[in-house]
Specification:
Rossmann fold; alpha/beta; 5 helices; about 130 residues
C-alpha cells in the first residue's frame, strides 16, 4: 500500500515507522525538516519537505498513485483541508484525518470525512480504566 502521511510529529513518525516496517511504501510530508528526526535511521520511506495543502507538493509526494492519505498535523483546519483535497481532488481511496475538537469531528464526519479525535478516544480509555 502506498501511504502519504502529512505531519511527521510523534504520531505521524510512529505511524510511518509501523507501516514502513510492514513493507508499505510510505512518504511523510512536513513543513519543518527538523520533524524528520523522529524517523528511525532504517526508515526506507521518503521524507519530503512541503506543505500538504499545496497540490504540487502533494503530487511530488505521489498522491496521484496513493492508496491512503493521513493528515496528522497539529492543526484541525489544515488536516481537514488536506483530507478534502486528497479525497475530492485526487480521489485517494482511503483518507483519514486527526481532529482534536470532538465537535468538529462530528461535523466533518457528516461531510464524509473519516476522522479520529484523540480527545474522544483518550477520554473513553480513561473512563474504561476508571470503571474497570
Amino acid at each position: 500500500m502506498k501511504v502519504i502521511i502529512m505531519g511527521c510529529g510523534r504520531v505521524g513518525a510512529q505511524l510511518a515507522t509501523l507501516l514502513d516496517r510492514e513493507g508499505h511504501s510510505v512518504t511523510t510530508l512536513d513543513n519543518d525538516a527538523y520533524s524528520f528526526r523522529r524517523l528511525p535511521p532504517d526508515f526506507k520511506g521518503e521524507a519530503l519537505l512541503g506543505n500538504g495543502l499545496d497540490e504540487e507538493a502533494l503530487k511530488k509526494a505521489g498522491i496521484e498513485e496513493a492508496d491512503a492519505f493521513v493528515a496528522v498535523t497539529q492543526g484541525d483546519n489544515r488536516n481537514v483541508m488536506a483530507a478534502q483535497i486528497a479525497k475530492h481532488i485526487f480521489n485517494v481511496p482511503k483518507v483519514v484525518c486527526r481532529i482534536y475538537d470532538p465537535l468538529r469531528r462530528d461535523l466533518y464526519s457528516l461531510l464524509g470525512l473519516e476522522t479520529i479525535s484523540p480527545t474522544t478516544v483518550f477520554a473513553q480509555l480513561l473512563k474504561e480504566k476508571l470503571e474497570g
